[in-house]
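Convert to structure. Protein one:
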Amino acid sequence: MMKTQRYTLKPFLIATLCALVLSSCGVKKKTTLSQGRGAPSGKVYSDASSSRGLGKSGHKLANYAAILGVNERELSNKSLYHFIDEWIGSPHRLGGQKKDGIDCSAFVGMLYSEVYREKLPRSSREMAENVKRKYENQLKEGDLVFFSFGGNAIDHVGVYLHNNKFVHVSTKRGVIISDIKDNWYYKYFKRAGTPKS
């Protein structure tokens, strides 16, 4: 009886481990690539208080407007930037879902749940299958952007903001704002779109 119970538990543990790995952002492949040639060379906008010399005493929304190169009035979704501000700098952790460690798809899923009151699939690959695709020049604040760092399959997701900037979870820097046109990101950029309702 004890022997049978041990063998039925083993497939469950293996399936759980596989689900956790598949729900992440392709961490091993991405980490390997970013340590060698071709690491991000453009400016990384890691947090609104330090980027471009803006002090912590400034209005946070104004800081984000400066980072994104837009007028503050164009940032109409204040809850989006409040959410980003709460998470900025949180480290990456494979399968993580908390501020002490989170992966890209969990971050995007939580952002959509809290800011847009929409539930997204758990993995970046599933999210990519459930979007109404858009061209780059059609992207709006809140659209999803997808990357493939390890081949053809989607393994990374972020949320588009303005002027080619997007928020995502970097394996090295955690939650940051980056530029999709940076050579590093652009060569792995695969698609973008709005989640289907």
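Protein two, convert as well:
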Amino acid sequence: MADPRTRIVDAAAELLTREGRDAVTTRAVAAAAKVQAPTIYRLFGDKRGLLDAVAERGYAAFLAEKQVREPGPDPVEDLRTGWDLHAAFGLANPDLYALMYADPRPGAAPAASAQAERMLAEHVGRVAAAGRLRVSERRAIDLLRACGRGAVLTMLATPPEERDPQLLVDAREAVIAAITTDAPAVADGGTAAAATALCAALDGTGALSEAERRLMAEWLERLADEP
């Protein structure tokens, strides 16, 4: 039999999926996990701590699905694939997705959330290294994250029979168009794309000191985000 902590998180996740967030009470979870209610408070502090553990598990499940994919030859297509996987996960797990992204606690992000952010940064970094970002990496990450989550939450707030799947496609393409170019920076001569590509390559050079690299990165990010 699994340890009490695992049983409790499993029970809470199952209740969340089957009956929604309101069903995840300490009494119901304790009964489903076959533990006493004080055990939940001892292991998680309070109900919010338990929900954080469920969100952590959700992030881990999402990452396990994404990590089986190898990067493709086109980094921009990889961004599209990542967006589609994110949207599919949200639509398949509405209550879990809402817990993960609609009710975050500032400064208390699950460890798996940080890993997801690193994976997104790696995807964007490959686009930047290819000279195909028209904004800074930080701006691209923020736009992808904000628009992706917003689009999925909008779909989840819409009755299933009224949802338009094209919304997710249109939102995806709008963001891709806003942050990427059609060709490498060298080919199209775009200052922002060139600055972003050079910024992405800074870590691989030994010609600059750490202080010089930071200063150069700051200048290049300004150029990348210039309107």
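Residues 2 and 8 are 10 Å apart (CA to CA). The chain has a mean pLDDT of 85.
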